[in-house]
Amino acid sequence: MGSSNNILWPILNFQEIQDTLETLHQWIQIVGKIRLRAMPWQNHSWHTALYISSHGFSTHSIPYGDKIFQIDFDFEKHQLQIECGGQETQIMGLTPMSVADFHDKLFRILDQMGLKIKIHGSPNEIEPAIPFRENTINKSYDPNAAHALWQAMLKTNAVFHKFRGDFVGKCSPVHLFWGAFDLAVTRFSGNSAPLHPGGMPNMPLEVMQEAYSKEVSSAGFWPGSKDFPFPAFYAYAYPSDSEFGNQKVEPKEAFYSEDMGEFFLKYEDVQKASNPEEMLYAFLQTTYEAAANTSKWDRESLEK
């Protein structure tokens, strides 16, 4: 892969982006749940995810009766844009505001546009799961932090798409999952997987079990949390062979967490590299090989 100008991979200091990240996490859950309710179901809950766009995060088009609507976070103009065919685009400024205010403003706009959608009113995969209408705690929005986070996801998105294109078996789109706020891409071996035990907070067991009903090798980017305060790339297999964590992967900065059962590569190491794309791609490829080889995937039929 070609070299990259490191300026395009922004510095992400978790302590500096934490407050904005925690508020944005709630906001994207609200928008993601709107997509979840309006979209037809797709396997592994693929209908729920958001996507990286040229300006921010997007639901892409959502059918609603004989209409189509779309909701976009724009981290250049710092706006939420709500479009619906035949109507004027509605704009909601992204400024410091509580989750409760964001929720109420957005649903007033949707109601005025004739989009009558009801969502489950509490977040998933977050503890404590304060109902959106009652959350006046998370209310930070630093435009620079939001822009930097989107830029990091934009650069990551490009590498993930390249990686996805080298696989001819079943593979997910590159998805922004609002539950954990991670950008992910998942490859499938074609084999069934054992029933998943669950364990994610505020996540129905049947959703987890359907999501992991097939054998997978998955990789993603996660901006961190107060319990894991650094942005990082991750890779895991489900189910994973006992030798998975013992495999040699690249780059040398990557490491395996016995507690998490995953490989990690800190975002900072990629951002500082002379060729970030090449380093990240090596991580994706070698962790996939660790999963495919130890779980005895039929690689010849799954790869180009």
Account of the protein in words:
With 304 residues, this protein is an alpha+beta fold. The chain folds into 2 domains: 114 residues; 160 residues. 32% of the residues lie in helices and 21% in strands. The strands form 2 sheets. Strands 1, 2, 3, 4, 5 and 6 form a 6-stranded antiparallel β-sheet that branches. A 6-stranded antiparallel β-sheet has the order 7-8-9-10-12-11. A hairpin with a 3-residue loop joins strand 1 and strand 2. The two termini are 17 Å apart. It holds the Pfam family DUF5996. This is DUF5996 family protein.
Short description:
The chain has 304 residues and is of the alpha+beta class. The chain has helices at residues 14-38, 99-112, 143-164, 205-211, 267-272, 276-294, 299-302; strands at residues 51-52, 56-58, 62-64, 67-74, 79-84, 90-93, 175-177, 182-192, 214-222, 232-238, 255-257, 262-266.
- Structural class of the secondary elements? alpha+beta
Strand content: 15-25%
Mean pLDDT: 95
Low-confidence stretches: 2-6
Number of strands: 12
Summarize the helix and strand pattern as letters: HEEEEEEHHEEHEEEEHHH
Percentage of helical residues? 25-40%
Biggest pleated-sheet summary: 6 strands, antiparallel
| Tally of separate helices | 7
What is the alpha-carbon Rg in Å?
Answer: 19 Å
Q: Termini separation (Å)?
A: 17 Å
Number of domains: 2
The outline comes out as globular
